[in-house]
Fold this protein.
Amino acid sequence: MNLKDIKITDRFWSGKIELIRNEVIPYQWEILNDRVPGAAPSYCMHNFRAAAELNRRKKEGRDYTEPVYTFRGFETLPEDPSDPKEDEFYGFVFQDSDFYKWIEAVGYSLMTKPDPILEKTADEAIDIVCSAQADDGYLDTYYIINGRDRCFTNLRDHHELYCLGHLIEGAIAYFEATGKDKLLIAARRYADHVFERIGPEKDKIHGYPGHEIAEMALFKLYRTTGDIRYLKLSEYFIDERGKEPLYFYLEHPETDASSDPFKYYHQSHLPVRYQDEAVGHAVRAVYLYSAMADLAHHNNDEELKSACERLWDSITSEKMYITGGIGATHIGESFSFPYDLPNDTAYAETCASIGLVFFARRMLEIRPDRKFSDVMELALFNGILSGIAVDGKSFFYVNPLEVIPEACHKDGRKAHVKPVRQKWFGCACCPPNLARLIQSIGKYAFSETEDTLFIHLFMGAELKKNGVDIRIDSNMPGSGKVTIKTNNPGNSLTIAVRIPSWCTCPSISGSDPFKTENGYMYFDIPHSTSTITIDLPMIPGFVCADPRVTEDKGKVAVIRGPVVYCAEEADNGPSLASLHVDTSVIPEEEISDEPESETVFLRVHGKKVTDSREGSDYVSKLYKTFSGTIEEEKDIRLIPYRLWANRGEGEMRVFLNV
Amino acid sequence: MNLKDIKITDRFWSGKIELIRNEVIPYQWEILNDRVPGAAPSYCMHNFRAAAELNRRKKEGRDYTEPVYTFRGFETLPEDPSDPKEDEFYGFVFQDSDFYKWIEAVGYSLMTKPDPILEKTADEAIDIVCSAQADDGYLDTYYIINGRDRCFTNLRDHHELYCLGHLIEGAIAYFEATGKDKLLIAARRYADHVFERIGPEKDKIHGYPGHEIAEMALFKLYRTTGDIRYLKLSEYFIDERGKEPLYFYLEHPETDASSDPFKYYHQSHLPVRYQDEAVGHAVRAVYLYSAMADLAHHNNDEELKSACERLWDSITSEKMYITGGIGATHIGESFSFPYDLPNDTAYAETCASIGLVFFARRMLEIRPDRKFSDVMELALFNGILSGIAVDGKSFFYVNPLEVIPEACHKDGRKAHVKPVRQKWFGCACCPPNLARLIQSIGKYAFSETEDTLFIHLFMGAELKKNGVDIRIDSNMPGSGKVTIKTNNPGNSLTIAVRIPSWCTCPSISGSDPFKTENGYMYFDIPHSTSTITIDLPMIPGFVCADPRVTEDKGKVAVIRGPVVYCAEEADNGPSLASLHVDTSVIPEEEISDEPESETVFLRVHGKKVTDSREGSDYVSKLYKTFSGTIEEEKDIRLIPYRLWANRGEGEMRVFLNV
């Protein structure tokens, strides 16, 4: 289903899409061009220009000597920041990808709302990017500028194939939006070049990406162009990964495999088909699993499907925060061991939750099951939207479930946890990832098979399938009433609607489903106009974690439908750890049009428990003999987790004491 | 009061002293000589031999060229571990200090129990160490072997003055024990050399130690020799520290002061007299404060006394675990911010608590106040003795208050926390520090002024003061009954006895104190035989932390006198986080002669609380709607914290849920 054919009319999601369109995309363009005062320069467009300039000099045969590569660190900064040299590379080794993520978001934006000025800016930028490409198709400015002699010699740590992946995804989106294929051709040329250099043949490199994404991008390129070489290359990357002898150790003989702390970081410790547990860098992992799901589905590869299911279960049954956040430790931005889900030192990177959505969406292609779409919805409404401020101007990379600002400022163990959103990041993956996801949200809400339209997420939208006009109205996440109006001139169509697991008493009217399977109700659409009304009552409730999650023992999270709530200091004063909720009283709802339309706040009954402090000092005044507690009744006001940290700095807590 | 004049007859402490004498000192000697199979070589004696060999060659004028220094890292290991070169330096830059700590413990051991074989070994080792000394008195094998041209150019990171400090302390102990002054002369020569190189004069280096200890050692050397230069040098180190321009930044222009993460690490950010908060590396800090207290007392320096009091209060009122552990973060092995005392990621290094005892003991010289001695006792019975196994064969560096072994093994954030004691450490500071403290415990129990004997800690002992024979009997930490028998031929003597703050109902018989001040009762000793009986009932109780200690909210620790208790998995099964104690029932005592004589275990009434898990899944099976809890009555068995981890690996917890 093409994004162009889905018109999002939803109040909630349209707001987010507009925010990306009006705030994030323009701001990001300024960032890419180092024009934001106070923000660290990106050097992204600078690098494309520098590579283009070198290409020109080379062609003209003057002022040019082939550079000899020397490693200068993963981030290169100009010696004199006020005067970057026009022919040098700056920034992180993967800086090119910032443009590719931007152009992808631009593509999706243009699909739903044409904007000639934006398109012109994009076309001009594409011209620069394409002039940076080498004659043989290679396109990574880091090596073009610093020396091609060593390209593809550090697949583990450098990001040439990562940049290829994002280039492909950006190029396809822009092509689909505008029909313009200049960037797509560049992407194909680079992919063709990689195909010549890496693969199973004897004279090729037998490696794979250190940061996965090319796998799913190449699959998409194959779907877009029909060129089977891209499918083959994607399959090669998937199946070569983790085969003995392990490529990354061949590439890096200086690394001792037996004591390598990054053994699992790249998910390359074992062939992916044999992996059971989600490990290593969380973003890398879910990007890999997404590609595995693509190939498993396309090739009807049962072994790979099983691996995908196992890895899905490993994440969602043992390693996922209730917010849909994944990656419990900042060490390697990685999954921790099962049930280790600390709230205050969580990593839970916005990008990782976005990658989880990618994975979920692809699993739904294999088989529609609400276990995938429930998680997709959970991640979207919580751990992903928490990544962007309501005004669209600042972002979270890390999405903790518990914050005491003083600890973030003063305790090095929490230095990665920011109590307020940041303007931008040197390593700017999350904001553009948010941009491209939100701009293409329709692709996640709906999918289709030949005879069926699947509704995975509830949002107001108009679309057409098999000649049937479909109009969906929804108020989510405000309330759970959904209507699906169809106008069918006489075709055959099934609509399958997810009934979320959080809803224990759905009521359906207007039509009866002919079957319910894996959480989806299947409706035959009559040859006329019809309306199906689905009411999914969103009753606030309390949720507890598996008892093996030590951090959450004796605590509950408050939820309403797929929305997870949190307490903030702004509403409840400091020392949130003293609050206890009364789970016998159903939380009260409080509806407001601020900061989002129809925002539902909750008020739970509870108490504040403090030590009486009447005991005598024990050794020092820091400790006192216990003299009982003072309990004070207190209503606790909760806000949707996605909205935390929009009112300045303060404490925040998702799991509250019972 | 000379250690030789204190005869420890105490059952508990004699056992510990014997353990050090019979287990730790001989084992450590083997370690120093790289003769323990399976343990990482120390290279300590190797380095002294290598330096001695180079000195010999230099004198003989053959096979010797003056080495030119090149930095090769803080730890140098042989290229071929099976064949270390006889003229190279190996191990950490501060490796010499291992011998000095050993000889200090040997000295104390010989004071209380002669051992001609041990003394012969020590004499031979001292011969080697002294032949390593350079002609000009310099004695640090790292630079003697690697090149003297750069000595004293990295006071911040290298440990030449740290080694000087430990050399002095070891030499004095050995001299006091045996009367042999060979090592003491070597220590003086090195101190004299430093005096010539560092100091306020224009042509000298205006620096100070990166790791404090020389300050207190030089003061001790002044007290031992009467040579005022050592006092001056100690004072210089104290007063120069933290003066602008900061020496460590002059020494290291490559370090940017404005972004230096180690700004507070060395306590050199501000002149020590103006410091209010205990910061940075905890061991370094308390070693510095100890020297400050020495000088403040000796010079009757009121400003310095005030600084000591402020820093004492900063530690004990805001930054000390209930076990007497200090240093809440492994990042820089440092103090964290006030009230940040996480139980599971604690650093609480054994050495830091030992240093806190050094500091406390010196504050007691300034003014006797139980606020100092109470902490000294608390640290000894908990966070220090926890550092050594009951069999004396393994050691903790880090002393956490909560352990889940799986997390220590799998979570990099807790990699510093070991769930079982280790045989030895590459950086072997804690075991020898334990050895020297325990072997000299009598110095901490008692102090004197002209007319008064102070009893700070309760332990069986025989000593003489002003011609009065004093015999103390005590059963601590088994019970709190103390008798003090005196036989006074007719002299004037006051005995001042600490009444611990943990004891709310002491009873005294046999004599009445003529005054009570700052927690000490002062008794006139009659001209005859007399007995003072002091009963300090040790009633088990519950203690809570200041409410600003977030980690301990809703929790209590169980104590009995100065002994802090903990729950272990071995007694209570796993999932200690599910246990809740009933604070309304006084814990029952259970006395056993294992593993230490008269060990008191406790049994507290409580319950085990688990979620009913009857709710339905919320999005994934990791989360369920809350359906209440199941409470099961349960007696919880507690053991003294110092005895944890003597029965294999398992969970442990000090602070328990109420």
